[in-house]
Write a structure and sequence with these properties.
The protein is mainly β and 90 residues long. It has 1 helix and 5 strands. Strand 1 and strand 2 form a beta hairpin.
Length: 90
């Protein structure tokens, strides 16, 4: 079986879910916007790579992972990360 690989663009994002902040990379198709991906009805989870989870109040890093999947229904805010943000977990 042969699988075609699709090149994707990396979007370094900050995502807030409740009292947690997740920093990591979202992989989008070329010319795809984050809002288009989030509005897709056939996708329930947002895959994030090189992710670090922080507690919003303390700023403490709680967990790092090379991959995590976030439930789109739980996302409160998603925005581009600061260009100087450090990438943990990769």
């Amino acid at each position: 079986m042969i699988f075609a690989q699709v090149e994707k663009e990396k979007f370094h994002a900050v995502i807030f879910i409740g009292r947690l902040k997740v920093e990591g990379i979202i992989h989008l198709l070329p010319q795809e916007r984050v809002t288009d991906f989030l509005d897709a009805d056939d996708i329930d989870f947002l895959p994030v790579t090189c992710a670090t989870v922080f507690h919003v109040d303390s700023g403490e890093a709680l967990y790092t992972s090379k991959f995590m999947s976030l439930n789109k229904k739980e996302i409160l805010v998603i925005c581009p990360a600061d260009s100087e943000a450090k990438m943990f977990g990769c």
